[in-house]
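During the second year of the project, the team shifted from modelling isolated chains to modelling whole assemblies. The rationale, set out in the original proposal, was that interfaces cannot be judged from single-chain predictions alone. As a representative example for this report, we include one of the complexes processed in the last quarter. Its constituent sequences, exactly as entered into the pipeline, are reproduced here:
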Amino acid sequence: MAEARTVQPGDRTLAYVTLMPSAAILILLAGVPTITVFAIAMQDVGLGQTSGPFVGLENYVWALTSPDFYGALLNTFVWVFGSVTIEMCLGLGIALLLHRNFLGRGVARAILLAPYLVPTIVAVLVWRYMFHDIVGIVNYLLIELGVIAKPLLWLSTTKWAMVSVIIVGVWKFFPFVVLAILGILQSIPQEQYEAARIDGASPFQQFWRITLPYVLPVFILTALLRTIWTFHKFEIIYLLTGGGPLDATTTLPILVYFKGFVDFELGRAAAIAVLTFLILTALIAAYFLLMRRAEARQ
Amino acid sequence: MARVEIRKVSKIFAEHTALSDIDLVVEDGEFLVLLGPSGCGKSTLLRILAGLEIPTYGDILIDGKVATRLQPKDRNVAMVFQNYSLYPHLTIAENIAFPLRVRGTPKDEIDRKVKWAAGLVGIEGLLSRKPRQTSGGERQRTALARSLVRDPDYFLLDEPLSNLDAKLRHNSREELRQFQDRVRVTSIYVTHDQVEAMGLGDRIVVMSGGKVRQIGTPEEIYTRPADTFVATFIGSPPMNLVETGDAVLGFRPETFLPRDAFAADADILSVPFHVRRVEYLGGDRLLYGKVTQVLPETDVLARIPSSVACPVEAGEEVSFAVLRSELRYFDRQTGLATDRQHMAPLRSVSHG
Amino acid sequence: MSVAMHQAASVETPRRHREMTDVHFIATRIMIYLLILTAVSVIGFPLFWMLISSFKSGSELYTTPPTFLPNEWTLQNYRDLFVQTNFPIYFVNSLIVAGGATLLSLVVGGLGAYSLSRFDFFGVGSFARIALLCYMLPEVLIVLPLYVYVIKLGLADTLISLVIANTAFTLPLTLWFMRSYFNAIPLGLEESAMVDGCTRLQAMWKVTVPLAIPGIVSVGVFSFNHAWNEFLFALVFTSSEGKKVLPLGLATWIGQDNIYSWGMLLAGAVLITLPVMVFYLFVQRKLVVGLAEGGTKGE
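Output from the structure prediction step:
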């Protein structure tokens, strides 16, 4: 990859000098804080304080023995699993549709991708209005169509709150999946399909033997990214339900916020944040391990 | 084995007409070349033969049966694409096996046929590799093997050699032709390279602007071009064309020799040739210059084999000549070849 | 002569073929259109509903059953928004934060990306990959220590704190994408500028940057969008009305359980979305996430 490049005197300095501000910012704003969190997690930070006496692993112990923590953990898994599986299926389907050429494709594409760019606050506002038990359009339509008899309290019953949150999450974020899969679909050379047609392959066989092998790696990578990002989502749940009702939708990030900025126990909040980070890292490591093993088998 | 007929086929798109009224018969076992510059419609015609497109007008007949609207899979046709179109995630063996697996052929038969096809093109040793681990020439042969493995009625090849470097192209040409002689499948080959066409085809179809200009053997096309397009497209350097009063006169550079090279009583047209530049190309010498006096002043080329002594220098004016039997005449308006055996006496350009 | 011509012309006229009379083809087409129509209606409905509802009067928004089109179109909600709330202040604050973070990322990131693209000295390559890792860090993790910084530096409740905090996330993106845009510009152009007498920095400014403008704009839009929608940092770092950005400003009203001013909220929602939509239409065509390279290994 190293091509013959002209190297001028002063290039080396220039290289580092131009990189310095970026490096500085990233170190200060990302690198150091990451380490600091671990430090904070090991302090007993009192109300209104930003640091406190060193208490070792006490905060972690508290977290791992706290029902709040496990409740949030369970909610997080439900939230992530529900959202990501639906997003991936919906995104794949829409991508396959949008890959076809049809009249009005540009407009359809613009509308279908819009939720992703709309600010989260806007998405929340709209859906809260739509989910309103009395004046919301969702209940109205469902009753008119005979699906339900009485209006559902979407956001204020423990039973339906997570469902509502997942619905909004999927609506907002599935376009990312569409974009990723469309990207790979559009890079498959048309000739491969033509050669297959001439060889006698049916449309299903063409999908199975040409489209799928191209799409599968991207599909898996996208699922991984979506899992990571969904795991850490704070804003959408906080604004929709505030973590309620009765902690029904409190995920780990929400718990961190409450512990840190409502209960003002920064140390415990940090411990939960670190644990969240570690759990996710374990998941990612598992993914790479599986990938490695799958490739070794080939 | 099949006889393929193309009857009055036209293909009209919104912006332009790709093919106009093509009438053509490909005999059973023949190696037919579609030759022409890019945009002449040859690839479109090939795709219509494959079933990837439907003509706007006209029909395709295979062994006498109308096949115009048949899907590609229902015609027993095989196609080699310019970019080989190998599936990157399958091995060479799996690539070759693909058409058979798609049809549900039993496994041992697949293995047998794959080995046979690979053997025909000489890639038995590569069967477990992936396409990215093979060279251009090997991929091309894989594409060929994949087409063979189904025993097609006819073969379509879309510029399969254009991605290879010159030397490899030359070797592949030879292998391709040998292979076709062995297998004797009706083949239709598309190229823009006239040397390749001349070297490969039993017959050549010269196309331009969506129309057929001439159909014939390489020799017929070279020595008796049907119009000025064919005359200048075929042959490198192209035929010399001189516009005289009532017709366009044509003669190939290698027929244009010093007057002394001919017998005294030969039936020739003698012309003063003012030589501007001499290029020594190894096997040939090219003389760039212009003819004057007897013919209207025009830049022409003469090609003399280096094995023949040529005492002509740049800047000289020498008397050159062409056998009248080598002269070709074309109509000035249409460019079509006319049949004139004689010529009206040329008005000599007076210089005085 | 004419008889011969007639005979030549009487050869059968060739058959005309129409492409789309295939039953199979038409059936597939119909199904595609049906599916697309369903998808677009369902997915697009919320935004449409938001827009339509913002033009309904306050009382109409509370009728049951809900009306579809406004009984009377009114701009009352928009007027209320500007008159009764601090919406204009929020808007300006958002502009400052998003604009500031974008500017900072583009300048710092642009320089850095140039280095990553053109130079291959020790550590440069790995830096690119580490930078990308930073983008993957969760906000909830970073917000705690950053909050501590903000308090200790006395930057609580300032917009500056938000500008810098947002840069932490927009910078890695900028670096990554600008690097690939710079990579696409052939080195030969700068080298010929240097032969003509420029220093490397001049070559970069005069040759590379102008050519990378489309890329710079794309990345700028992405960064702006990220900062414009950012919520958590704003929630934690700012508290006074005069310092709130749009997402936070609107969110404060939602927190209250009886939302009497849905009209204003919807109008606010429409207005927040407008700049985003404008940018969106602008970059729409380029929006295809390039995950292909990572997904297909070694091809």
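Chain A has a mean pLDDT of 87. DSSP finds twelve helices and no strands in chain A.
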